[in-house]
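Review this fold:
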Amino acid sequence: MAMLYGSDFFASSPYPVAIEPREPQSSFPEHHHDFHEIVIVEQGAGTHVLNGRPQTLCSGCVCFIRDCDRHLYEQTDNLHLTNVLYRGPNAFRFLAGLDQLLPLAQDQQPHWRINNKLLAQVQIIIQRLEQTPVAFNLEHLAQQELLFMQLLVLLRQGCIATAVDDQEGRLRRLLDWLADHYSDEIKWDELADRFCLPLRTLHRQMKKQTGNTPQRYLNRLRLLQARQMLRQDETRITDIAYQCGFGDSNHFSTLFKREFGYSPRTLRQNDFLT
């Protein structure tokens, strides 16, 4: 597994924060690093696998990655993101208690969602962070730390703002619900009613946000979970298919091979694919 070092990104600067845009971010193998990272997805789609757990990415997704985490990107499609790198929660001279704003514990959710309005505000702060002068002085350091604090507050507000009862907020709650209920029998007209979205709006907005139709997005969630289960235990392939929401194991195998390029059985038989 590759190791990325902060010395390659922070150079000799004593500043605790660095900005690394990825436009676009291509598939990248599993790696870890000796610094922390906040990933902000600006457009496109892809899959982020954090400590073996897959998460679909779309505009507005935010990922918190610690220095003890391992992660990778795959199946990217015009994925544009910005990496906000920081040396660690205790690397700030003027900020104390920063860890209280970060999901650092193992049981805390490392993936958040923010709406488009908050994303635009976040991008403004990132632009200002990018403008930090190379020449170091305490005033520049204090300004960078203040901007980083503003960024964290905005992200937390954005995470809470998904509860706002407008179309965008309802769609983001729907996506969060699907992440937990992918194995349920899904009827899109009933789900649209549940989240107070017109069915046509649901289809249009999901395509816009995720790059996929609702059914393809759901299939991808199920397939990602199935692949994780195939790698982690010896449950029969047919049983995994049913547990992940597929009513027919043959159909599951066909979709699986189309999505990943190899069959469930091949994954089981070849350790190099895991």
Remarks:
- The radius of gyration is 20 Å.
